[in-house]
Amino acid sequence: MTTHSRAGRAFWGDIRFLIGIVLVVLSILSVWLIVSSARDTTPVLQVERTIPQGEALASGDFRVVEVSLGAAVDGYLAPQDLQPGMIAVRTLEAGELLPAVATADARTGRTTNIVVDSSVGIPASVEVGTPVELWHSPTDEDGEFDAPRILAADVVVASIPESDGMLSTRSAAVELVIDRADVADVLAAINSGAALSIVPRGSGS
């Protein structure tokens, strides 16, 4: 009876020992997998400056960074993915990784750039990449300006020229990215002498 009891304790002791070894091995394997995954990085493009919607993408606007994105890596562009003729389909902020969905071929782009002169200057809060509304006040039959109204609502600032001189100030001219469907209306407003103004999106008139 005593012999069977000792044999039973020895058997269960051996089982617990083996289970302990298996747990240690699994723990070591898990740590190794985590470390290996962290070391598995992929080169992708990171935006170095704000790129407004509709602007052509050039290699000089990006730097290559090594990141660990796992399965999400396919959603971002690697250096070899940047091709001539690609444009930004939304404003890209400096520091963000370049998402594939934020780019398109220029031939399929729905936007173009137009330079307009703002009759009331440019608000200080407006900078490259700022979403704005383009308002206009058309002239009536007597040559008077009519009530202002929105001319194009989905507009992004592409660039703001700086005037030359000792005291450099913002020019009233601004380059805008607009939908091609709005081009005819904007050009007609410019040619008719309407007063144009830039309003940050969400602001009042």
UniProtKB/TrEMBL annotation:
Which UniProt keywords are present, listed alphabetically? Membrane, Transmembrane, Transmembrane helix
The protein's matches in InterPro entries, at most eight in alphabetical order, are given as: SAF (IPR013974)
The UniProt transmembrane annotation reads: 15-35
Where in the numbering of this chain does the SAF domain appear?
42-104
Q: What does UniProt give as the signal peptide span? A: none
Keyword Transmembrane carried by entry:
yes
Q: What domain of life?
A: Bacteria
Name the UniProt record assigns to this protein: SAF domain-containing protein
Q: Which organism is it from?
A: Microbacterium ginsengiterrae
